[in-house]
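User: Some background: our group keeps a shared notebook of sequences we're curious about, and every so often someone picks one and asks for a predicted structure to add to the entry. Today it's my turn. The entry only has the sequence so far, pasted here. Could you supply the structure so I can complete it?
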Amino acid sequence: MKKGILAAALWIAANLAGAQTYPDKPIKIVVPWPAGGITDSAGRIMAQRMSERMATPFVVENKGGAAGTIGAEFVARAPADGYTLLLASAETHAIAPNLRSKLSYDPQKDFVAIAPFAINPFSIVSRPDFPAKNIKELVALAKSQPGKFTYSSAGLGSTSQMAMETFRGLAGLDILHVPFQGQAPALTSLLGGQTDLQTLPAGSAVGLLKGGKVKVFAVTTSARYFNLPDVPTLKEEGFEMDFANWFGLVAPAGVSPAITQRLAADAATVIQSADTRALLQKLGVDAYPPMSAADFQKFLESERVRWGNVIRASGLKPE
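Assistant: Of course. Here's the predicted structure to add to the notebook entry:
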């Protein structure tokens, strides 16, 4: 009994000592997607701002594949010392546990929440020569030729797939899914005319729309997107849909509470900065309202439940 108490006391003392000197080396943020997409760019903004706030380097490392789950597994198995963090999203913590029957990590047990930092709305877009002018014409055209049209996504289990599958179910469409490994190659297929449709992050659609490279039919959130004020919401078009991805920071389970509290406090300060929000909005996403680490942990669990309902309603089966 005394040995157990002594061991616990030594563990607490070691963790407190580590927390007092933290951080004393670079901190890695693993982005579980290829470089070049919205998730990667948002992660780099957060890394830059956290580096400035904590006066220590934050380094982004891309570990893409399997809709974010390869990078998530890597972080779940990393040392719980606060020096390896994951850019978590709906894909890694809410969609994957409902869509993958053999997930190599437990989103709830293998991670500790730090803070959400961005919200990423989507838009329904097409190649520029797609023969429809608005969402009603798109639906009518797809229904008149079932199985003819395709949509690209960032991968099986990605939010871009979930967004389109949700809309497809609401509209009763028969369109073919073409998955890629990340948003960048999925967009390349659309711009090259290999696929017809996509649910693209709304921020990415702005410049493409201005350049005449895509048509934008609607946004997936309940309110219009701040950079596309003339584009209607799906709800305005008669489809009850409110859909957006989120990005947040999590760490491997077992990280000292003192370290997670330090990270959460500094992340909250960074997120509330007008400079940070301006950088995120320039990218096309918005800052997530500050949330305590405990509340973010509850949010992650609620998202897992919510996305499970979405996936079951869409008819998708675990793989």
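Suggested note for the entry: The longest strand covers residues 111-126. The longest helix spans residues 293-314.
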